[in-house]
Amino acid sequence: MAEQLRDFAHAFLHALRNLTPIIVVVVAFQALLFREWPEGGLAIAFGLLIVAVGVALFLQGLELSIFPVGKRLANQFARRGSMLLLMAFGFAIGFSAVVAEPALIAVAEQAYEISEGRIDALTLRLIVAGSVGLVMALGVFRVILGHPIHWYMIVGYITVVAVTFFAPEEIVGLAYDSGTVTTNVVTVPLIAALGIGLAASIRGRNPLIDGFGLVAMVVVAPMISVQLYGILTYADPGQIANGAALVGLEGETEAPSGPLVMLLDLFGMLRDVLPIILVILFFQYAVLRRSLASPVKVGVGFALVIVGLYAFVVGLKLGLFPIGERMAEQLITFDTWLWVYLFAFAIGFATTMAEPALIAVGQQAEEAAAGKIQGSVIRILVALGVAIGITIGTHRIISGHSLPLYVAIGYCTVLLLTYLAPRYIRALAFDLGGVSASAVTVPLVTALGIGLASQIEGRSVLIDGFGLLVFTSVFPIVTVMSYAILMERLAHWREKRS
Q1: How many structural domains is the chain composed of?
Q2: How confident is the model at residue 192, as a pLDDT?
Q3: pLDDT averaged over every residue in the chain
C-alpha cells in the first residue's frame, strides 16, 4: 500500500508540473493583455488541482490494468498462432473503443446540427467506428508480417488527398476532425500496448519499429470513410436525416443538477470504458479460455482509470474550459489577429503538455527504446508541433484558404521527412500525431475553430470551422521526425570529428 501511495504522489506531482504551462499561459494573458483577474479564479485553480488528481489516478490505473492486460492478450494470441483470431480481436477493440467515444459523439452532434440534419450523427459514428475496427485488423496484420509502417501511411495519405478532391467541401473538415478525435486517453494506451505486446511476442520484430503505428492508421481511416459518406449524402439534396424531434425533446427536458449530475457523469465514464472491458473479457475467457492474471488488481486498475477520467473531465469543466472560451471571445474583439495567433500557439503547447495519453505513450516509447528516446523530450516536441499546427490552422480560417491544399502540403512534408528520418522513429512519430489530439486539446481547439468561423464574415462554420484538429495530427510528426534527423546528423558529425 505504501508503494502505491508513493507512486500516486509521484504521478500527482508530475501532473502538476505538466499543468504549469497552462497556468502560465492563462495568467500571462490575463495579467498582461486583459489586465484583469478571471472570474471565478478560485474555482479555476481548484479545477486544475482536480485535473492533476485525475491524471495521477488515470496513469496508475493504466499501469495496473490496460497496459499489462493488452500486452498479455497480444502475447497469448501470438502463441496461438492464429492470424484471423488476432485480426478479429483488433477489429473488436477498435470498434468498441470508438463507437462510444465522447469526443466523436460531440463532433457528430455538432455536425448534425450545423448541417441541419443532412449528416446523421449515429450513422457518422458507426462509419467511423467500423473503419477504425477494419484498420485495426489491418494494423495487426502489418505487425505480424513485419511490413514497414511508412508504406501503409503513404497509401493512406494519398487516398485521403485523392478522395478530398471528389468530396463536397461541407464534409472535408468534418472528415479530418472525425479521424483525429478517434484517439482518446483510453484507446491510445490500449492500442499502443497491443501493438508493442504483439511485436515483442514475435521473433524478429522490434517493439519500437514494429509495435508502434497502429494509432496513426486509426487516425487516417475515418478521414477516408467519412468523406465517402459525404459524397453519397450530398449527392441527394433531398436526403434529410431523421432525428430533429429527438433534439427538440432533449431541449424540453429539465436538466438534472447537483449530486445526480456527478453520478450520471461517473456512469457516463463507465459507459465509455465498458465496451473495451467487455471485449477484453470475452476474448480472455470465451476465446482463449484463460482467467485473468491478478483479476482483483486489474479490476482496481480499471476502477482507477474510470475515476481518474471522471476527475479529469470535472477539473477541465471547472478550470480550463471556462477560461479558454472567455479568452477566445476577448481575443477576437482586438483590432489585430496577432494575439489570436499567439493564443493559439500558447494554448496548443500548454494543453498538449498536459495530455494524459501523450504522457502514457511517452513512457511506453521510453521503455521500448531502451534509452534511445526520452519521454520528456518527446512530449515537448509533440507540444511544439501541435502549437505550430494550430497556429497555421488558425491562419487558414482567418485567411479563408483551402483546407485540402494545406493538408496536402502537410502530408507531402511528412512523406519527405519519412524518407530522411531514421527507421526507429518512423512508427512512433506517426503514432504521436494521433496522440496529440485528446481529452484536453480537442474541446478547446474545436471551440476555437468554430468560434473563429462564426465571427469572421464570409466564413462557413461547417466548411471552415471544422478541420483545425487535423493540423494537430500532422505537425507533431514533422517536429518529431525533424528532431530525429537532426540528432542523427549531429551524431554522424561528432563521430567523424572524433
Answers
A1: 1
A2: 78
A3: 78
- Grid cell for residue 221: 481511416
Query: Where does the pLDDT of residue 191 fall: very low under 50, low under 70, confident under 90, or very high at 90 and above?
Result: confident
Nearest CA to 471 among 401, 406, 421?
406
> What is the C-alpha separation between 61 and 308, in angstroms, rounded?
8
Q: How far apart are CA 183 and CA 216, in angstroms?
A: 9
Phi, psi of 104 (to 5 degrees): -65, -40
Asked if 474 contacts 182 with a C-beta cutoff of 8 angstroms, the reply is no
**Could you report the per-residue pLDDT of 457-488, keeping only the tens digit for each?**
778 776 787 778 888 889 999 999 999 899 88
- 248, exposed or middle or buried, with CB in 10 Å at 0-12, 13-18, 19+? exposed
Rounded (5°) CA angle 450-452-458? 100
Closest CA to 312 of 66, 4, 18: 18
Domain of residue 30 covers 2-497
pTM for the full predicted model: 0.72
Q: How far apart are CA 302 and CA 278, in angstroms?
A: 12
**DSSP track, 430-491:** HHHHHHTSSTTHHHHHHHHHHHHHHHSTT--IIIIIS-HHHHHHHHHHHHHHHHHHHHHHHH
Measured over the CA atoms of residue 435, residue 437, residue 439 and residue 440, the dihedral's sign is positive
Q: Which candidate, 270, 293, 249, places its Cα nearest to that of 72?
A: 293
Contact present, 432 and 149 (Cβ < 8 Å) = no
Q: How many residues does the chain have?
A: 498
Give the type of residue at 487. Answer: M
Q: How confident is the model at residue 239 (pLDDT cuts 50, 70, 90)?
A: very low
Query: Given the C-alpha cell 477516408, which residue does it identify?
Result: 224
Quick one: DSSP state of residue 25?
H
Going by pLDDT thresholds of 50, 70 and 90, the confidence category of residue 243 is very low
Distance, CA of 471 to chain centre: 12
As separate numbers, helices (DSSP H) first and strands (DSSP E) second, the chain gives 21, 0
- DSSP-based three-state secondary structure for 241: coil
Dist CA 408 CA 400 (whole Å): 16
Please tell me which of 193-207, 294-308, 380-394 the model is most confident about, judged by mean pLDDT: 380-394
**Gap between the Cα atoms of 351 and 18, Å rounded:** 9
Q: Are 463 and 169 in contact (CB under 8 A)?
A: yes
